[in-house]
Every structure is written in structure tokens, then in C-alpha cells.
Amino acid sequence: MTMKKWIAIIVLFVFFAYMLWEHMIERQTVTTGIQIGMKAPDFSLETIDGKTVQLSQFHGKIVIVNFWATWCPPCRAEMPDMQTFYEKYHNQVEIVAVNVMVRDSREKVSQFIKDYRLTFPVVLDVDGHVMKQYEIQPIPTSFIIDRQGMIREKQIGPMSYEQMVQYVEKWGK
Fold first, then answer.
1. How far is CA 161 from CA 66, 78, 85, 87, 95, in A?
2. Nearest to 105 by CA among 71, 140, 55
3. Would you give the distance in Å from CA 154 to the centre of its chain?
């Protein structure tokens, strides 16, 4: 083979290798959003006692992000199941309960946490930014986020203990 042919082969090889690399990088790009299969938008909110909780701090764990309010009957109905579930599965799953602060106050949320003996993080969306970011309507609405931060399920309405267990069994592998 002549030198020109070798150079042409090398140039073609480099070109195809570059095209393959570009294709692989393009496929690895993850879109952030609130649809199933997208990376969940990160947020940072405070608990009633002023501790900051950031969604991304739970990377590597399944997370249930639950939007709720104290005055919402379906929200009140799901909280005992959520607490029971958390007591059993807290090593595998984190629950972040986002109070939407619509017609709520710190005092009402604090009393609710005491009344229901909640031990999972309850954070306050005081300005409604996270509620808007996740386009929450109605409440309760929950997102099941996998270990890599991807949204795998969206549950509108209250979740039962059994549903939470099914989500963990499905996405905990």
C-alpha cells in the first residue's frame, strides 16, 4: 500500500471513531424535567427547624418526593402509611415531604408533624417555587426518583403503603 492510502485509511478511521464518540456522548446527555425518564430538578428547602435539605443529597437512594398540605384530606390520609413505610424502608428509600405552604403556616406544619409523629424530612416551599417547578396540581402528588436521580413514577393522589412497597420493589433493583 502506498503512503497516501494509509493516510486515507487513518483519516477515515479517525473520522468514524470521532462520529461514534459523538453519538455516545449525545446519548448520555440527560434532560432535566418533570416527565418520567427525565432527571428530577434539584431543589433546596428548609425544614421547620431550619435545616437545609437538598434533593441531590439523596443520590444513590430511591426518593419519594411528596407534595402536600395540612388542610388536604387525601394528604392527611396518606401520612400514616407514609410514616409506617418509612420506618420499615428508610435504609433503602428517602421520603421528602414538601409542604406547599398554601393556606398553611409554620405552626400548622409543626403541629401536623407532631400529631402524625413524622420522622422523615418535611420541608417548606414557602414561596411556591418548587411547587411551580414541578407543576404541582392537585395535591397530594408524589414523584418516585431512582438512585440516579431519574423520575420513574408520578403518583397523583394519595399513595397507600402497598403502592409505596411496589414502587420500591420495581425501582430498587
1. 14, 8, 6, 11, 13
2. 71
3. 10
- Indicate the SS3 state at residue 81: helix
At 117, is the secondary structure helix, strand, or coil?
Answer: coil
Rounded to whole angstroms, the Cα distance separating 45 from 146 reads: 20
Strands 151-156 and 122-124: unpaired
pLDDT higher than threshold 70 for residue 29? no
> Which set of grid coordinates corresponds to residue 45?
428547602
- Can you say how many angstroms the Cα of residue 86 is from the centroid of all Cα atoms in its chain? 16
Pairing of strands 122-124, 52-54: unpaired
pLDDT tens across 84-120, in order? 999 999 999 999 999 999 889 999 999 999 999 999 9
Which H helix or E strand runs over 133? helix 129-133
What is the average per-residue pLDDT within 16-39? 74
